[in-house]
Amino acid sequence: MLDPKDWISERQTAGTILGLKVTKWLVRRKTKYQMLELALTEEYGLAFALDGCFMLTERDEFFYHEMLVHPALLSLPEPGSVLVVGGGDGGALREVLKHPSVKRAVLVEIDEEVVKAAQKHLASVHQGSFYDERAQVVISPGEEYVKRWEAEFDAIIVDSTDPVGPGRRLFEPEFFASCRRALKDKGVMALQAGTPFHHPEELTSTLLTLGKLFGAVKPYLGFVPTYPSGMWAYILTGTQRIEFDKDLIERRYRERNLQTRYYTPELHFAAFVLPRFVQEMVEKAL
User: Fold this and answer.
1) Full residue range of the structural domain in which residue 38 is found
2) Which of the residues are catalytic?
3) Is the pTM of this model over 0.90?
4) Which terminus has fewer CB within 10 Å in the chain: N or C?
């Protein structure tokens, strides 16, 4: 077992541990909701974990945040109002605010200590997004906040933990039904759905629930080196048909002058081409 004084680690399966050598601990405390750990590491820069699971590292966070946000927002002609559920580190909010048509971006996070730690230590991740005049930070359970709205948001980005602890309710049918009501006509929602390699049930159960509520449900994949297996699933879903015209997505990417390090319009379409074993999961669920 790795020495917890010197390593920040995640037990990713019963027989797999990912550990990062710590050079300095910045935060290590139990909040009202979860264990929060933030450390500077030798090879991955800052590393942030909740309840023993890596949320991000400075070295590869853009792999995840860009793929969570841009396929959704580029499928819309002019996203103006966006809700980010979770994502207290500010990375998803940062990517949302890159779209010039966005006039209002609400981040709702259950744990105020996460936001405070991010504001203090994760400037390289949030890049000032918390302080953008278009941004609003609300401390509230996401499943409660979203119930307040009807036809309010062009897009909802669910940047949740896995369906354990405080994140469990963000995978329940009631939450997804509330998101459906909170979206405007032709609105879209994107969320992370775990690793189909280690936890296929997370992807299939989420697809099954969304398929009963939304007009379009499209899973896609990305690579995140520090997440379990590296293979990470996302789902893009919408109240109606989702725009998938390649020339249109490329034009929007150029016109919005998006600066990305992982996402490209070409990768956008490649991400929806699934390996056979994932295709089979999707076919069973939908």
Assistant:
1) 7-57
2) 159
3) yes
4) N
